[in-house]
Amino acid sequence: SQWFSVLSQVHASTEQEIREMHDEQANPQNAVGTLDVGLIDSVCAADNPDRPNSFVIITANRVLHCNADTPEEMHHWITLLQRSKGDTRVEGQEFIVRGWLHKEVKNNPKMSSLKLKKRWFVLTHNSLDYYKSSEKNALKLGTLVLNSLCSVVPPDEKIFKETGNC
């Protein structure tokens, strides 16, 4: 019934009235919810042929799927939201990507059980640093130095299917 009501209202409206409805809907004061841009971990185009011009906003707690009217508008949103994440430098060093990951840690040195700890990772050209949180002055817990002896390999498909972990 809500859809019918909206369609009836639009059908009976003039171009000017439709434009006013659209502007009212786009007014931030009428928003259903908000998202602090400081909480955005990443923004990227979605690879879904059924939803052209779609992109995702990823935070530590949720993934938001968004659609734009045109590819240009989609890229504009992505650029704006990526820029809002702040500087692309951490401690003076340019980073490639940053975000939440789970680090495996041994629960007890005498046992073989592993525990996953959520950590904020920052990948730079020569290191992978991890922190307790994503806060600006968070305690750095460790650094993995990347050099010519390092390599990146795809996750074990069987383990990923069983646990969802890479």
From TrEMBL:
Domain PH: 1-86, 94-166
GO molecular function list: actin filament binding; phosphatidylinositol-3,4,5-trisphosphate binding; plus-end directed microfilament motor activity
InterPro entries: Actin_motor_Myosin, PH-like_dom_sf, PH_domain
Regions annotated as coiled coil: none
UniProt signal peptide: none
Pfam families assigned: PH (PF00169)
One GO term of the biological process aspect: cytoskeleton-dependent intracellular transport
PROSITE patterns in the cross-refs: PH_DOMAIN
GO cellular component, one term: filopodium
The name this protein goes by in its record: Unconventional myosin-X
